[in-house]
Amino acid sequence: MSTYILIHGAFQGKWCWEKVKYSLEQKNHHVIAVDLPGSGEDMTPPQEVTLKSYTDKVIAVLEKVDSPVILVGHSMAGVVISQVAEYLPEKIQRLVYVSAIVPQNGQSLQDIMGDGGPKAIFNKTEKTLTLIDEYIVNEFFNECSEEDATAARRKMRPQPVLPFNGKVVLTEKNFGRVPCIYIETTKDHAIPVEAQREMYRQNSFDDVFSIDADHAPFFSQPENLTKYLHDIS
Questions:
Q1: Distances (CA, A) of 213 to 23, 95, 113, 191, 202
Q2: Residue 164, pLDDT score
Q3: Is the pLDDT of residue 117 over 90?
Q4: Domain ranges, ordered by start, for the chain
Q5: Best exposed site among 10, 94, 103, 201 by fewest CB in 10 Å?
Q6: What's the CA gap between 175 and 15, in Å, rounded?
Q7: How far apart are CA 126 and CA 157, in angstroms?
């Protein structure tokens, strides 16, 4: 069966993939969920975290896997998996973007999102953003159960901001040869589906799947998300 590497989005950690990871493993897939530097259980000081820190972490995981993987990125991690594919295209069977940012060559996450990101407080010393609590459920977990939303809110951490300014370098020779799949989320308040569609229509995606989910389909629609990820294999 296939090997999946799951990369979380901003403010989150590998914990967000627990349901999907378990379900894919029940289908005999090998699944690795990664904590990016400064996120989840990774204690890298946030002011030291850059886009290169992210890509280095994912590359280190990829290099330990013998066969090409299905590399899955949620939200902000669309930028991360794109740049990793440029560096190691031969290690990636497919890229899967789950309600994710799709950058063009030379773009950063900040270039794409502008001032349209989540409502958050900036800590100048630590170089982090902390989500304003009253907006978290409406922007991230609007279709989730109260139990899942409450548990997720407790685990969310301040997000290092320096990776947002890292510009990707993507070429047709490397990134362009990796097959790409997009999974859109139609009830997403963080990255509205219209914005998702505008991004993926600018790229050559092999397929697009649609889930009636919020920005956290791994909580609100884990069965459907697992089904699509399994079918992609």
A1: 18, 20, 21, 12, 23
A2: 97
A3: no
A4: 3-232
A5: 201
A6: 28
A7: 13
pLDDT for the residue 204: 87
Q: Which residue is catalytic, options 75, 82, 99, 220?
A: 75
To the nearest 5 percent, what fractions of the chain are helix, strand and coil?
40, 20, 40
Fold type of domain 3-232:
Rossmann fold (3.40.50)
Q: Quick one: pLDDT at residue 116? A: 65
Question: Edge-to-edge strands of the sheet including 128-131?
Answer: 120-123, 128-131, 159-160
* Residue type at 35 in one-letter notation: D
Per this entry, what is the length of the chain?
233
Does 119 have pLDDT greater than 80?
Answer: yes
This prediction's pTM: 0.97
25 close to 91: Cβ distance less than 8 angstroms: no
Going along the chain, which residue ranges are E strands?
3-7, 30-34, 69-74, 92-98, 120-123, 128-131, 159-160, 180-185, 207-211
Q: If we measure between CA atoms, which residue out of 229, 83, 41, 231 comes closest to residue 168?
A: 83
75 is catalytic: yes
List the structure tokens of 143. Answer: 């279709």
Whether residue 137 contacts residue 104, with contact meaning beta carbons closer than 8 Å, is answered with: no
Strand order in the sheet with 180-185: 30-34, 3-7, 69-74, 92-98, 180-185, 207-211
